[in-house]
Amino acid sequence: MTDSKTYDVVVLGAGPVGENVADRARAGGLSVAIVESELVGGECSYWACMPSKALLRPVIARADARKVPGLRQSVQGPLDAAAVLAHRDDYTSHWKDDGQVGWLDSIGVDLHRGHGRIAGTRQVTVTGSDGSEVTLTARHAVAVCTGTRAALPDLPGIADVKPWTSREATSADHVPGRLAVVGGGVVAVEMATAWQALGSQVTLLVRGEGLLPRMEPFAGELVAKALREAGAEVRTGVSVTAVRRENGTVTATLDGGDTLEADEILFATGRAPRTDDLGMETIGMDPGAWLPVDESLRVQGSTWLYAVGDANHRALLTHQGKYQARIAGAAITARAQGVPLLETDAWGAHSATADRAAVPQVVFTDPEAASAGLTLAEAEAAGRRVRAVDYDMAGVAGAGLYADGYEGRARMIVDLDREVLLGVTFVGPGVGELIHSATVAIAGEVPIDRLWHAVPAYPTVSEVWLRLLETYRG
After folding, report:
1. pLDDT for position 1
2. Residue 212 pLDDT exceeds 80
3. pTM of the predicted structure, to 2 decimals
4. Residues 366-400: pLDDT tens digits?
5. Which of 184, 147, 144, 356 is nearest to 268 (CA)?
């Protein structure tokens, strides 16, 4: 006999997004159940954000130290790969979720372990690993927070090769002698940076003409230059047409007929939504599809189903998913309380406006690449009358103090009709900590005339803001 329980809200997926939906709904006085088939904490905690940054931090720290007089001679040797991997393991809690389960308990959220499937309007069936079943009924909302998985191309031989995806690249327990990385986006360049520094001979195979195609072109150019200087090979304009593994060696066939041998091959070629086995067909929706939502994160055409985080394809970043969770949690609570009219206008309490206007991102390579808002191409495609303002970050006193031979570039995109910022990009050592100032300026629609009075401390790298404004004013 199937057990049944009723809650105000049922959340599918206990990654950072699902956790935050649950937290906000509980803060609003609602009862919440959360369903998870793997580890509480999700992809970010165990196979993405945390382990990848734990791998990259020693790499970036050593790169920075090598640019500082009096220190560079002390850091010329190789990284201690075993120590780096052990540090990574600590940050994943050794792939155990006890701490995060304890947090759910502390806020009063019930955890149901097992595979959850929608079984009709406001209904979810959870099947445990032992075959037991429980049916959860939601009085107000079901939130799909199941994220994405790595999308592998349909290539001859790929199943037998057992390629790395982002999961294997962030959790591997050894350093491969030769690593082929297929892709040119964030996962590809971050993992190429990490494993090259840990001792792999990395070859990056990029179908397009450059790296980081969703950022300003100079970001990918500077990252590619640094990867090559570090010893990696970066090949652009090439595609993999087949792969095979023999005697432990992977051979990739390229579209020009050339072949490449490696010990492991990482495919970082996109993401697909984890909606294929959620029972979407029971409510008239297509399994395996992205879930389009309105500004409050409610699935279009539904009064009770929400899709929060990567599954809605708005902005595939953990911090944006957590932002959406705060918006969705507020919207679910307001509707449960009978609020007649939600604040869904731009920047309203129930509107995920930042997904369209002020998304920040940091790529933890050497140099770092950080952006917020629109690129020049995106702003022009949207029909905005804009001006791009560029500045060589090496001209900032703080940058020179930060690192000898500092290389970097900054760009801000100005809306000429309103004289506010639409986008900012920084590339250079240490710029990841600069990007929140750009996010605040964009989200706050701070006028250029007012930004002129935001005085950067001297001598810091953030003085690049003054140089950008001076360049704009002429």
Report:
1. 53
2. yes
3. 0.96
4. 999 999 999 999 999 999 999 999 999 999 999 99
5. 184
